[in-house]
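Renewal narrative, Specific Aim 1. Our central claim is that a sequence can be written position by position from structural information alone. The example that follows is taken directly from our test logs and has not been curated for this report. It begins with the C-alpha cells describing the chain, in the order in which they were read.
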C-alpha cells in the first residue's frame, strides 16, 4: 500500500477574482472506499503566507478536526492521516482560509453544488489515500477541465484502482504563463503557468504518479502564438522531464475548431502539421481529433457545445470510450 493521489484540482492565480478570506466547504462524492486519507494543501500561486484554520473532515457521523497551519508561497503541506468511514458516499471538507491567492473554482465533476461564502476554493489541492492503485495526471486546458471526457474515464478507471486526476485550466497555454489582467504576478495568473511549470508543480504535490496525459496547445494556436517549431520544442521539454522522473506520458492531438471566431484556415493548416508531427513521433498517440472531427477542420455537429471549439458531453463519452484502458494499465 502506497500513499497515492486519488483526487486533485489544478490551482490558478485568483487574487483579483476572489474575496480575501472566507469559510470554504466542499462536499465530494466518495472517490474510493478507503479507510485512511491525507489532505494536500498548496500555495502554488500565492505571494503571501496563507493561514488554514478550523479544518475538519466528515464522513457520515465521523468527523475529525485537524490543527491549524500556514502555507508559505510555493509550499506543499500534507495533513496527518485521517481515518474515515469507508462506507460513506459523501466526504465533507470545511476550513477557514485567508489570503485567497491560489485556488480553483468549485466546478468539478466530484464536487456537489451547494451554497458557499467564496467563489473559489483556496489552499486545498489534492487528496491522497493509502492504496495499491496509481495516479494518472490529465494535463490540459478547458477541453480537459470541462471534464467531458475525464469524468467518464475517471469512473471507469477508479473501478480498476487507477486514479485519473483532472489538471485542466481553462485558457491555459503550452508556451507561456497567462492571465486576464495587466499584472503578471503569480497570484494573478488566472490561466496558470506554462504547461511544463504546471507539470513540475503538479508532481511536487502529487504522489505515486505513473502517467501524464498531455492535451494542450489549442489556446496558443487560436491566439496566433504558436508555430510548429515552438510546439515541438515545448512538447520535447515535457517528455524529457517525464523521462527524467521515470513517468510515462501520453500525447494527444489538437482537435478541430473551424467556425470558432478565433480560428481560421491558416491556423487550421498549422493544427494539421502539428498532428502529423505527433503521429510520426509518438507511437501510442491518442487521436482525439480523429474521434471528434466531422467535416475537415470542424467538430461533428452532434459533438459541438455551440462555440465550435469545446466538446459537449456526447463527444466526451465518445473520447472516453475509445481511449484504451489497456494502455493506462500498461498492459
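The sequence written for that structure reads:
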Amino acid at each position: 500500500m502506497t500513499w497515492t493521489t486519488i483526487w486533485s484540482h489544478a490551482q490558478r492565480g485568483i487574487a483579483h477574482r476572489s474575496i480575501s478570506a472566507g469559510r470554504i466547504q466542499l462536499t465530494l462524492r466518495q472517490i474510493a472506499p478507503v479507510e485512511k486519507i491525507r489532505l494536500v494543501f498548496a500555495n502554488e500561486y500565492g505571494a503571501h503566507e496563507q493561514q488554514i484554520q478550523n479544518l475538519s473532515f466528515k464522513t457520515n457521523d465521523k468527523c475529525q478536526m485537524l490543527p491549524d497551519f500556514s502555507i508559505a508561497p510555493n509550499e506543499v503541506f500534507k495533513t496527518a492521516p485521517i481515518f474515515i468511514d469507508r462506507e460513506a458516499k459523501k466526504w465533507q471538507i470545511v476550513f477557514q482560509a485567508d489570503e485567497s491567492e491560489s485556488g480553483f473554482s468549485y466546478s468539478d465533476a466530484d464536487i456537489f453544488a451547494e451554497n458557499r461564502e467564496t467563489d473559489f476554493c483556496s489552499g486545498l489541492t489534492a487528496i491522497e489515500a493509502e492504496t495499491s492503485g496509481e495516479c494518472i495526471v490529465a494535463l490540459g486546458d478547458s477541453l480537459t477541465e470541462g471534464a467531458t471526457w475525464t469524468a467518464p474515464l475517471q469512473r471507469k478507471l477508479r473501478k480498476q484502482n487507477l486514479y485519473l486526476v483532472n489538471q485542466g485550466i481553462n485558457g491555459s497555454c503550452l508556451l507561456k504563463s497567462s492571465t486576464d489582467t495587466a499584472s503578471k504576478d503569480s497570484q494573478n495568473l488566472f490561466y496558470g503557468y506554462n504547461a511544463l511549470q504546471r507539470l513540475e508543480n503538479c508532481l511536487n504535490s502529487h504522489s505515486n504518479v505513473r502517467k501524464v496525459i498531455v492535451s494542450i496547445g489549442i489556446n496558443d494556436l487560436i491566439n496566433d502564438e504558436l508555430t510548429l517549431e515552438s510546439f515541438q520544442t515545448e512538447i520535447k521539454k515535457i517528455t524529457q522531464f517525464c523521462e527524467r522522473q521515470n513517468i510515462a506520458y501520453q500525447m494527444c492531438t489538437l482537435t478541430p475548431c473551424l467556425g470558432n471566431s478565433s480560428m481560421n484556415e491558416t491556423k487550421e493548416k498549422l493544427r494539421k502539421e502539428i498532428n502529423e508531427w505527433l503521429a510520426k513521433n509518438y507511437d501510442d498517440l491518442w487521436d482525439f481529433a480523429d474521434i471528434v472531427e466531422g467535416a475537415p477542420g470542424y467538430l461533428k455537429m452532434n459533438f459541438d457545445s455551440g462555440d465550435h471549439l469545446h466538446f459537449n458531453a456526447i463527444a466526451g463519452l465518445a473520447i472516453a470510450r475509445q481511449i484504451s484502458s489497456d494502455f493506462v494499465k500498461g498492459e
